[in-house]
């Protein structure tokens, strides 16, 4: 079986964001045999506020930005979502990106890494609801960073990400769960594709 591909999706695009620090940390610390990890920064995709007809068409969207996003999402067997907590929920940019495509998400697995005043726990819970509707299986282990204890200089131009050591073990546990689920769900997708060809 070929390597699994896991996308680390950085879900904030606002000026002064700190999510890219967390995404880079995940990339530097996530490891598993036979698994490739890639940071996917929403800031690079410039998705407009949802401008696609319903229902969405897999791999055949109207806008160039939508097609670029869809093709990137389709490359992965699973995802680690890096999300801040904005007003007790996920960033608008992340919700928009999730809504932009549909079939490319289905029967994949995901882990959640969040940050905020309470570790981003409420954003994580909202994200789980959205992922469930998209047929993305989210794993139990949730990695949460506090803006008070895992960052220094938060709210200034000199902010630094200084995560506590315990978070590495949490990420290891998440990656272990995610790889198992992503591998199993890839088999589900392959079986469904084979059945479609035979029909």
From TrEMBL:
Assigned EC number: 1.-.-.-
Residue ranges constituting the NADPH-dependent FMN reductase-like domain according to the UniProt record: 5-148
Cross-referenced SUPFAM superfamilies: Flavoproteins
Database matches in InterPro entries: Flavoprotein-like_sf, FMN_Rdtase-like_dom, NAD(P)H-dep_reductase
Pfam families, alphabetized: FMN_red
Keyword Oxidoreductase: yes
Signal peptide (from-to): none
Keywords attached to this entry: Oxidoreductase
One term of GO molecular function: oxidoreductase activity
Protein name stated in the entry: NAD(P)H-dependent oxidoreductase
Native source species: Microbacterium candidum
